[in-house]
Amino acid sequence: MSSRRNLLLSRRDLLRGAGAAVLVGPVAGSLSACADDTPPSESFVHGVASGDPLPDSVILWTRVTTDGAGPVDVVWEVADDPAMSKRVASGSTTTDAERDFTVKVDVSGLAAGRTYYYRFRALGATSPIGRTRTAPSGSTSRLRFGVASCASYAHGYFHGYRALSEQRDLDAVIHLGDYIYEYGSSDYGDVRAYEPPHEIVTLADYRTRHAQYKRDADLQEVHRQHVFINVWDDHEIANDGYADGAESHTPGVEGSWADRKAAAQRAYREWMPIREQADGRIYRKLAFGDLVDLVMLDTRYQARTKQAVGLTGAPPAADPKRSLLGDEQAAWLEDQLKTSTAKWKLLGQQVMVGQLLIEKGTKLVNGDQWHGYPESRERLLTFFRDSGVKDIVVLTGDIHSSWAHDLVFDPNDPTEYDPATGRGSVAVEIVTPGITSPGVPEAFAGLVDGARPFNRHIQWLELTKRGFVVLDVTPERLQGSWYHLPDVVEAAPTAPAFAAALSVKAGEKRLVPDAAAAPSRDDAPVAAP
Ligand SMILES: [Fe+2]
User: Fold this and answer.
1) What CATH number does the domain containing 182 carry?
2) Structural domain boundaries enclosing 255
3) Same-domain status, 349 and 244
4) Which of 4-13, 107-116, 299-308, 375-384 has the weakest average pLDDT?
5) Which of 69, 170, 206, 397 could potentially form a cystine with 267 if both were Cys, beta carbons 3.0 to 4.6 Å apart?
6) How many domains does the chain have?
7) Residue 146 pLDDT more than 80?
8) Residue 403 Cα to ligand 1 middle (Å)
């Protein structure tokens, strides 16, 4: 490894942890519909997936495995039942090498708040059957979401995805990024080797890496059972990325940043079940009836300026030229929040908003997080405080550890904030741990624990374990439950253990511990067979 890599790893070890779509509506396919008796085959080795649910439509995804170079005809069908006997929509499309033989269909005309089953057929073979779900519309009494991030393939097995796949009653899985990692084998984790073995840079590299991830059985299963809502973080391109570069990108040695970014984002659009927007942006809003508006943000590659400080040092001085969201996205976010009529406003985004200061001679901050962009953080928290918009919950990934925060400008100012009552808090934040990416070393975890007096807004944290969060949302309260895995190094599945649950009541702005996670829904739809 290069010295640059060693530096990168020591720093990371401390605290750092989508060609054009072929879109076809429901049509009577000119090709024959899927035969019920055709077994899943080697023509669909990357599984099936769905994403970005609307009340009447959802994205369906697959990839056709072929040795041929020419276009491939693909039939898709959607049914009400897992046996695929009650077909409600079907159609056909084509894919080809230009989009790496991936298939993306935006199926419309579906019913709101409903579970469907789907499959594809191509080259005489039938895909596995997937399960998906549209967003509800109107009055909605309860929603449940899985929340995940940070799946370093090299650090182990995706038992967390398997566990989420078995949680049958989720309305969707919200994925906050680092869905893939760009490193070469043994650069960051050595449990599983990467394809290709080197750090990925080119379009072919990114496609190969996405293909490797999509061949993972646990990742396939969670996609097969749940509709996903994805955003990227840095590692979908390169470590500590920003709009015009990345900490780990070396122009010249690794080509131009513009070429690498375009390649990575093209592969992402091809391989992820994300609804594509005309200009390539991925920030967007998804509505879940009158209960939740989910605003997915791109704090990473849309407009982020370069980090001003690294892991150590005081937060940089505010500079109007620096930004995490960019003016356009920030104004869009504020507009979404101001005009939302949903009970809860969820922000799905990448990096931590809550501060972490360690008084030990010098302050310590993570310059990659919102604290490293004081002008952006100030604008966000000021909006939370002054806009009159209530019931905002920030969902965060990136940091490979579990945190529950009241959000406050300065948690150390007792005139501003009282952690016992939540006075002065402007919103709350729920941070999900990594699926496999490692948390912080024990020694540093102890340092953070020792710094709790300087971080009074932290209502709960766990710094070392992998896992995920389940959100349970009703009009009265929103609960986040953390689940941790005993091990991700062994291939044999391990069951997640309940770690903690905290909730925020409607109209309040503080997280309070609960004795237990809310029970699963007893009317969970039947799993995809
Ligand atoms: Fe990560």
Assistant:
1) 3.60.21.70
2) 143-514
3) yes
4) 4-13
5) 206
6) 2
7) yes
8) 15
Cα(134) to ligand 1 centroid in Å equals 29
Count, residues in the chain = 529
Asked, for residue 7, whether it belongs to a domain, the answer is: no
Largest Cα–Cα distance in the chain?
72
Q: How far is the CA of 43 from the centre of ligand 1 (A)?
A: 31
Is the pTM here over 0.90, yes or no?
Answer: yes
Q: Could you give the CA distance from residue 432 to residue 399 in angstroms, rounded to a whole number? A: 8
The sign of the torsion formed by the CA atoms of 455, 460, 465, 469 equals negative
Give which of 102, 121, 226 is closest to 174, Cα–Cα.
226
Among 77, 112, 133, identify where a domain stops.
133
pLDDT in tens, 12-70: 333 333 222 223 222 222 233 333 344 446 899 999 999 999 999 999 999 999 988 89
Kindly report each contact of residues 122-125 with a partner whose C-beta sits within 8 Å and lies 24 or more positions away, as own/partner: 122/43, 122/44, 122/64, 122/72, 122/73, 122/74, 122/75, 123/43, 123/64, 123/66, 123/72, 124/38, 124/43, 125/38, 125/40, 125/41, 125/42, 125/43, 125/44
Q: How many Å from the N-terminal Cα to the C-terminal Cα in the chain?
A: 45
CATH number for the domain harbouring residue 57? 2.60.40.380
Q: Are 70 and 47 in contact (CB under 8 A)?
A: no
Average pLDDT across the chain, whole number: 90
Using CA atoms, how far apart are residues 354 and 359, in angstroms rounded to an integer? 16
What phi and psi values does residue 220 have, to the nearest 5 degrees? -60, -40
- 386-422 pLDDT tens trace: 999 999 999 999 999 999 999 999 888 889 999 999 9
Query: What is the CA(180)–ligand 1 centre distance, in A?
Result: 9
Q: Are residues 65 and 208 in the same domain?
A: no
For Cα atoms 500, 145, 176, give the angle at the middle one, nearest 5 degrees: 90
**Percent of the chain at pLDDT exceeding 90:** 82
Q: Which residue has the tokens 């646990």?
A: 218
